[in-house]
Amino acid sequence: MLDHEMDWLMWASIVGASMLVGVAVLWIVAGYYHVRYYVRRGHEPETWKCQPKRFLRPDQQRQAAILSTINLSIGGFVSGNLVYAYLQGWELPKLYTEVADYGWLYTLGSTALLFVLMDGLAYYTHRAMHLKPLFKRIHRYHHRYIATSPFVVVAMHPLELLSLQAATFLPLFVMPFHVASVIVVLGYVLVFNIIDHSGVRLVSRIPWQGPSMYHDDHHVYFHVNFGQHLMFWDRIHGTLRREGRRYGVDNFGGKGKPGAGGSEDFVKYP
Ligand SMILES: [Zn+2]
Ligand SMILES: [Zn+2]
Predict the structure, then answer these.
(1) Which ligand is closest to the CA of 156, given by its number?
(2) How do 177-178 and 95-96 pair as beta strands?
(3) What are the tens digits of pLDDT across the range 89-111?
(4) Confidence at residue 218, expressed as pLDDT on a 0 to 100 scale
(5) For the chain, which residues make up each domain, given as ranges?
(6) Cβ 223 vs Cβ 254: under 8 Å
């Protein structure tokens, strides 16, 4: 129950900090990949770039950076308000801070489960965004960037950002999670989403993490590879890019059509 007076100073500090953290992570991680590859190795894209012949125009780069900054501020605003409400006694997000309350086994197991649930919910939300009406009204803004760049990460319609955030936060209202688990998983999701949009050919040492080419191909072929980190969801639904299938912006459904178009360069994901 909300039995406290509104503490505006506390509210502003928490909401402000929450907005700042997301935007700071974006600029530090995306800035790092931008300088390391696009600035320092911009003259040799064939050695590192997923799409060596395709680059965003400078105005698209700026637009993506501004949009991602605005969207992470909106996301931070929502999260900050949830944190404030929680600290004021709102008990709906089932969070805990003492490992002893549930034990280590539960805390570690629920952290892994949180990651899998958030990843699965992101897959289904993204897949829903590829239904024709939602794609044409909302999701197409993210798909304007056929070549990706680290700043494209949440360059999308704000309604899409809010839908993704709602889906990702859903598990927090269903079962108890340690506060640190939530921070770690959300941090992972943001950082790896930036890496997946970097446009740089990268393969993670983390065994369950898909290569950056997996989401980069989503931007090239549109209705395929809807997953975020785990390729599992695409595999079980048959929506992982396959050889001998033709994909494209007008080819909805996630499974492509028989035909070789786009398959000449087919490389199986590691
Ligand atoms: Zn998409
Ligand atoms: Zn994307």
Answers:
(1) 2
(2) parallel
(3) 887 778 999 999 999 999 999 99
(4) 96
(5) 8-258
(6) yes
Cα(143) to ligand 2 centroid in Å equals 7
Q: What distance in angstroms lies between residue 78's CA and the mean position of ligand 1's atoms?
A: 23
Q: Ligand 2 centre and the CA of 71: distance in Å?
A: 14
Quote the ligand 2 centre to 193 CA distance (angstroms): 8
Q: Which residue(s) pair with 49 in the sheet?
A: 200
Contact present, 56 and 45 (Cβ < 8 Å): no
Ligand 1 centroid – CA 25 distance (Å): 23
| DSSP letters spanning 144-195 | G-SS--GGGTT-S-HHHHHHHHHHHHGGGGTS-EEHHHHHHHHHHHHHHHHH
Q: How many residues does the chain have?
A: 270
Interval 24-67: pLDDT, tens: 999 999 999 999 999 999 999 999 999 999 999 999 999 999 99
How many angstroms separate the alpha carbon of residue 5 from the centre of ligand 2? 41
Residue type, 141: Y
Given a cut of 50, whether residue 1 has pLDDT beyond it is: no
- Tell me the one-letter amino acid at 2: L
- Rounded CA-CA distance 59/69 in Å is 15
Q: Which residues contact 132 (CB under 8 A, 6 or more apart)?
A: 252
The mean pLDDT of 114-124, rounded to a whole number, is 97
The rounded mean pLDDT for the chain is: 93
Q: Where are the alpha helices (DSSP H) in 3-57?
A: 8-33
pLDDT band at 4 (very low <50, low <70, confident <90, very high): low
